[in-house]
Design goal:
With about 120 residues, the protein is mostly helical. The protein is built from five helices and no strands.
């Protein structure tokens, strides 16, 4: 299996992070950073030709760039999935899933032309 398709592990201790020296950067911001990095690797599925889309839209839609996974007349492919788990707290698992969903929604809305930036405000 090529390295770009192998399983990647990203360990993150939400509880420990929130109590550490990183208090200036909140947990939600760190989770959004992790989610954005994840979607750069996996891309998102989009079934509309993106040839005429701005380059930054094409880069986000197709992971790290169009050359990574290729482009078809139908759109771009998603090449991965995300799994979250917290061994002792369902609330933390749900928080991580919420952030992943929010970041994915931002990318999807941008792909559809609804927003120009995939970063959604916390109160949206």
């Amino acid at each position: 299996l090529p390295n770009k398709h192998k399983i990647k592990y990203c360990g993150f201790d939400m509880s420990k992070y929130s109590k550490s020296k990183h208090k200036k950067q909140n947990v939600m911001s760190k989770l959004e950073e992790i989610a954005n990095n994840t979607f750069k690797c996996t891309g998102i599925f989009h079934n509309i030709n993106i040839t005429n889309s701005p380059q930054h839209v094409r880069d986000i839609l197709n992971g790290a760039g169009l050359q990574k996974y290729g482009e078809t007349v139908q759109g771009v492919y998603q090449t991965g999935a995300v799994r979250t788990n917290c061994v002792d707290c369902l609330d933390r698992t749900n928080t991580a899933q919420f952030v992943l969903g929010k970041v994915a929604l931002g990318h999807q809305l941008m792909a559809l032309g609804v927003v120009s930036d995939p970063r959604l405000l916390d109160n949206t």
